[in-house]
Write a structure and sequence with these properties.
It contains five helices and three strands, in the order H-E-E-H-H-E-H-H. With about 170 residues, the protein is mainly alpha-helical. The radius of gyration is 18 Å and the shape is globular.
């Protein structure tokens, strides 16, 4: 595919804490062609989206909270299935989308979503979740004691490789 054939924008936003990155990304709801917007929140800063005057159409914004790298992989698989139905003109497409989205949204929410914008917030937290998985620290909790593995070059290299693959997977979603 040439860049001209793909109407989607892929970007990475970097900035200091509190600079407005999350608000900027959530304001994609204000652009009709980018709706609906799905935030995959690893950071725990969802409060920035609540009653935010800079996000005019916050009703077009959904948040899925992830706390483990395995959850992020499940969300990716979910999005692949969602995308296969999103632009379908089949008579039962909306019913299938509702059934699918009930896996991640409250069941009483009956508005059909067609997510065209997906935000990973934040890549730093996702990377930390992945490194914890590599070091087998993700099941220990806060009390790791004195008997835990410290990341060396091999673990950082593996972490980097996995994160790059994950970013490419999300980037290549249609």
């Amino acid at each position: 595919r040439s860049d001209r054939e793909v109407p989607w924008l892929n970007m990475l936003i970097y900035g200091a804490h509190g600079a407005g990155k999350s608000t900027l990304l959530a304001s994609a709801t204000d652009v009709e062609e980018m709706n609906d917007v799905l935030i995959i929140a690893a950071e725990g800063g969802e409060i920035v989206y609540e009653d935010n005057e800079r996000i005019a159409n916050s009703d077009m914004l959904d948040i899925i909270k992830v706390e483990r790298i395995e959850q992020l992989q499940k969300v990716y698989e979910f999005l692949k299935a969602h995308i296969s139905l999103r632009d379908s003109t089949a008579a039962d497409a909306d019913a299938k989308l509702l059934k699918l989205q009930s896996m991640v949204l409250p069941e009483d929410d009956t508005r059909v979503r067609r997510w065209r914008t997906v935000v990973l917030d934040s890549l730093s937290e996702i990377e930390a979740y992945n490194l914890a998985k590599i070091l087998n620290l993700d099941n220990i909790g806060l009390d790791a004691g004195e008997e835990f593995e410290v990341a060396g070059f091999a673990e950082f290299r593996r972490n980097n490789h996995i994160i790059l693959r994950m970013v490419r997977q999300f980037r290549d979603l249609d």
